[in-house]
């Protein structure tokens, strides 16, 4: 059985013309996609996210035809690559600040920032919130927070 294909609806005005342009001039077009919420459903925690069935096949088909196929995410680039490794796809993590295979070193100030963020969450009593060390940035996750106002307080 062939894997499912990702197909877009062509109901917006001008969308069919854009799709036709991509198909007719593949060497002047490209795709930059997000992982979470696009190639994967939004998960309760980042480590639980998995690619939709057929997503890797669709990316491989795009990468074989177009000069640029990239995933752009808030995740570290290496983690993004591990979630959906497809030859020919560029992996840009930390919103473009980290590219898979670039060899960029972790930021030297990061451990202090991680510790400060953890102290903030602990001292505030934000149960269910957690800190994610991304290697070059830090994320404060509150999707699973016990308090309904955790997101407001953390921002």
Describe this structure in words.
- With 155 residues, the protein is α/β, with parallel strands linked by helices.
- The protein is built from five helices and six strands, in the order αβαβαββαββα.
- Strands 1-2-3-4 form a four-stranded mixed sheet, covered by helices on one side.
- The longest helix is centred in the last third of the chain and has 15 residues, at 110-124.
- The protein is elongated.
- The protein starts with 14 loop residues before the first helix and ends with a helix.
- Mean pLDDT is 84; it is low at 1-7.
Keywords summarizing the entry:
single chain, 15% strand, disordered N terminus
Main sheet record = 4 strands, mixed
Choose one word for the global shape.
Answer: elongated
Uncertain stretches: 1-7
Rounded radius of gyration (Å)? 19 Å
Q: What count of helical segments does DSSP give? A: 5
- Give the assembly state of these chains: single chain
- The chain-level mean pLDDT equals 84
| Class inferred from helices and paired strands | alpha/beta
Name the helix and strand elements from N-terminus to C-terminus, one letter apiece: HEHEHEEHEEH
How many β-strand stretches? 6
Q: Distance between termini? A: 47 Å
Q: Strand order, main sheet: write it out.
A: 1-2-3-4
Give the helix proportion (percent range): 25-40%
* Percentage of residues in strands: 5-15%
